[in-house]
Amino acid sequence: MNEGRPLARSAHSSSPLVLPHGAAGQSPSTPSTMEPILPFITAGDPDLAGLPALLARFRALGVRTLELGLAHSDPVADGPVLQAAAHRALTAGASPRRVLETLAQAGPSPDLVLFTYFNPIFALGEDLVGLLRPTPVKALLVVDLPPGEEPAWEAGLREAGYPIVPLLSPTTPPARAAQLMAARPDPGPGSPFAQRFAYVVARLGVTGDGAAADLAPVAERLQELRTHSDRPLAVGFGLDDPASLAQVRTLGAVPVVGSALVKALAQGTSLTAFLGPRLGQAEAVR
């Protein structure tokens, strides 16, 4: 994952985003608990019209938090599965504004973490918080925005109720990891999981490249991170089968599943058939 400067940035990126002070955003749906799974899908794949119904199906299966990716034409670490999903979504017209407008019409839904790059979301300008407010979005994960790059913009979002999730790569030194988590602080147990967790990248490379994550160094990494913070941790990259997801849970972390889920849905596998065995709950499959 990229910990350096973002790959691209608006010519006006030094200008802070003016956000309405004191805006509360959506109130947390439930206090945070350990989630059984953190799925990832791309918004608008295969189309935007079906997104609210898909979110409702996730919620009915017991998924409380979900990563929703905004399609990007030049992703940093997406493998071929997610690149193809992004292409389908962009072809279907899934711009950030249209995605947020669609989410505003959603009924039952998990809490959403909006997975995005900086430029597409920054381009929404002062409309951003107003577009977020009626949606199930609780937080953002901006993969190419290190803490301190856009302090006024990020502080405004956090004040409005939309914190940015810390992203910790396998090569992030312990002291730097502590700084990253402190810069994007845990709001505490009364807040939903979506606003509290840090995302731990299990391995280097791109998503969905067929290389399973070696969880031994991940276990050491999680233990190390817990000396700096007691916030919830999610682990992603290289996880797809029920056994590896269960192993992450035994480490006290939440497994993220993305490419395998996106591929299965694109191939016509039902959400129930895919998620049931991976939720670790027999009652999830009805």
Whole-angstrom Rg: 17 Å
The CATH homologous superfamily is termed Aldolase class I
Number of domains: 1
Q: Estimate the helix proportion, in percent.
A: 25-40%
The major β-sheet equals: 8 strands, parallel
Strands, count: 8
Q: Which structural class matches the secondary elements?
A: alpha/beta
Order of helices and strands: EHEHHEHHEHEHHEHEHEHH
Q: Can you give the mean pLDDT?
A: 84
What distinguishing features does this structure have?
single chain, alpha/beta, TIM Barrel, eight-stranded parallel β-sheet, 8 strands, 13% strand, disordered C terminus
Provide structural commentary.
- The chain is an alpha/beta fold.
- The chain has one domain (38-279): Alpha-Beta Barrel (TIM Barrel).
- The chain has twelve helices and eight strands.
- It has helices spanning 51-60, 80-91, 96-103, 118-122, 128-132, 151-159, 174-183, 193-196, 215-225, 242-250, 259-266, 271-279, and strands at 38-42, 65-69, 111-116, 137-142, 167-168, 198-201, 233-236, 254-257.
- It has an eight-stranded parallel beta sheet with strand order 4-3-2-1-8-7-6-5.
- β6 (198-201), α9 (215-225) and β7 (233-236) form a beta-alpha-beta unit.
- The longest helix is centred in the first third of the chain and has 12 residues, at 80-91.
- The chain is globular and about 45 Å long.
- Residues 1-28, 204-210 and 281-286 have low confidence and may be disordered.
